[in-house]
Amino acid sequence: MTQPEEKLQSSLDEAVAALRGEQPDADAIQAAGDRVWQRVREEHETARLTVNSIRGCEDVRTLLPQYRLGRLAPARALLVEAHLHECVACRREAREAEEGKHAVTALAPWRHALPPATNDRFRWVLAAAAALILGLSAYFVQDRFFSSPGGMRARVDSFSGVLYRVGFNAEQSLKAGDELSEGERVRTGGGSRAELRLAEGSVVEMNERAEFGVSMHRHDTTIQLGRGNIIVQAAKRQTGHLYVAAPDCRVSVTGTVFAVNSGIKGSRVSVIEGEVRVAASGATSVLHPGDQLSTNAAVAAVPVKQEIAWSQNLDQHLALLAAFAHLQNKLGAVQMPGLRYQSRLLPLLPSGTILYASIPNLGDAAQQANQLFQQELQESQVLRDWWQKAQSGRKGPSFQEVIDEVHTLSQYLGNEIVFSVAFNSEHGSPLVIAQVQRSGLKEFVAGEISRHAGADKLQVQVVDEQDLRNLATQQGQKQLLILVRPGFVAASGDVETLRSFDNAVNAGGGGFAGTPFGQRMASAYQGGAGLLFGANLQAMTAQHASARSQRKQETFEYTGLADVQYLVAERKENAGQVLNQAELSFSGPRHGMASWLAAPAPIGGLDFVSKDAAAVGAFVAKNPAQMLDDVFNVAYASNPNAKANIAREESELKINFHQDLADILGGEITVALDGALLPTPSWKVVAEVYNPERLQSTIQQLVADANEHNADHPERHLSLNQDSANGLTYYTLHFEDSGKSAEVDYTFVDGYLVIGPSRALVMTAVNIHQSGNSLASSSAFRALLPQDEHANVSALLYQNLAPVVGPVMQQLSPSQLQSLQQLAKETKPSVVCAYGEDNAVRVASNSRFFGLDLNTLALSALLKLTHPPQKGTD
To answer: What are the Cα distances from residue 704, in Å, to 95, 151, 710, 737, 831?
Structure first.
């Protein structure tokens, strides 16, 4: 640097130092601050006064201070009120301003910061207090949130070979049902297998010479794997996680199926279903179905099927389910007794009868079914193996002997058997009655009692009318008395009940036929009766009414269930056509929650469901606003603080339950499983919406509130994005929570909200609706609907699991595939329909047992076993 440059630099440094050292006086600083504040306030006031027209939320919020002070012109105030009524976000802004949380447009005066005040004298006191508070807090937090829960940790479900407990008190052999506690370990012997169920529901299958213990820490469960090979079926969890801690890795899961093999050289983790996180050697890996990870290069990878080849349970279960399904379809060929159009037994029951069940004489049908069953045993090795195992070690008469005895007994009886319960002042009295059509019944029954004497603690005695008159009443003794008299047989555990029946027969009737409930049951015979059941719910609820408090009784009445009258269900088969129907009747017009199911009406949500849907549930309810009022009425009756609690919830959520939710929803909802099960079940929800714009505003408000509530937890976040396609706006609600993520997509179309787990599925539902190629237009679906006077239904349940077989076939072994194909072949679609009437709710179906036939249940179980649904990841 030259001399002139050095001189110039020195002068500049001196000037800067002088400027830094110059301090303006306090009056000058105050004056400058006042001038700035005055300019800001004037600019703000100018902006506020220039709102000439209300075009949106920004203008409304600018006018809120004048609105609260009553300074707006009447017309302008009316516009602000209307906007606040419609806009959730602005209404929230106004409420927060009134509560003093923040000013909407008013600015606080600028105040100078006060110099920090210090007091070293009391620092040590504050430090000691803070340490004490911290210590006490840590103690209580540890005790409340981080202590281990009590109780057992695992229970032995089954095992073969040797299974024993390993602990400090020497080894102990285990048996099925034994439990393990915290710190205890279990080990299998050579050539042994075991299956244990953890306290939280997960199932652990152990190979030979495997060893593990189970520990629990708050909501988390850890399997401490010492050695060996295990397969874990992790249960679905609401909170916490399941961990497997091996010597050289840690596996974390939630609701998956995987195997861990821990040996001398290292560990190998294999994933069968779901997603698994493995922490090993300072790194974390995410594994998916079919993936495998070894903690040591010396432990080579093997096919997953080979890793779990020692477990044979799955294939056996699948094959047995398929055999059961086939057997059930074969049993459909059994000739059932004809319908009964009148009953000679009903009039003989006492007037206090509250339960009534009638079945035909099934003796011949049981013999036919047994013949088909024996034939299946000869043809099916799987069924035969199961039957031999089930019968091994069984005491008493054989199955064939029981069937023969039942068939012989049926030859003495008439075409109907009635089971009933009558209520007296103290307790209910069961009674079973039937007609006698041939002599010799008393001798046959007495002979059977003599043959099986001592096999049961129940004392059975057969009597005639003379014996019954001389029989002493025995209190507190388990007994079954069988009265055989001319024309009738009756059985009961109560002497007086049999005497009342005997008197009723001699008098020509017991009074039940003259009661309203008896008349309702008698009317069921007019159309022909098969299996018939009835319950006098009105009498049952009356028995318990006196035990309720006044508040509980008022709450119960608000539900509308206090007016329930009878439940009548029947199943009958005529000319090969099955009809199942049930009716829940009320003493007056349905009201409260009992009236939520609306009258039959079109269900437009079915237009968004494809013809290949696996399961559908749809219903049309009454006005959601009225339903919300019913809920509020029940809450007000049961809790005097309910109104205040609801108001507080609305204030915290910044929404009005009526205006922002109930008033804008229709009463129609459809839920469907429509598409592939893997990797994510293709569910969809379709709901009727009257005001999509307002509902979207409410959703945005709830998302904002959720993020505000989780402000201290950045790992939890909701985001709401939107995009347009084909003239519709599609929204994506994305969830983030501690590394886990999920999304829900939805759109509004033609008055419906369509929700699904992906944009593609929602768009597919819209395309189905627009093309008209839906389940509602399927002739096969319509053929399943019951034949009656209604053009529509109030609700329906539909299942057709066969279409879901295709996408999962590639995941199965040959034996599993064979079982699945057989089940799919035996399974038939079914529909259950419900109808809401003024004084009743009726349910009807043409399928077996309201659609819950063994084929459906078997196929459902098979799909669950082969592909448990993904229930979240760690």
So the answer is: 16, 41, 10, 16, 41
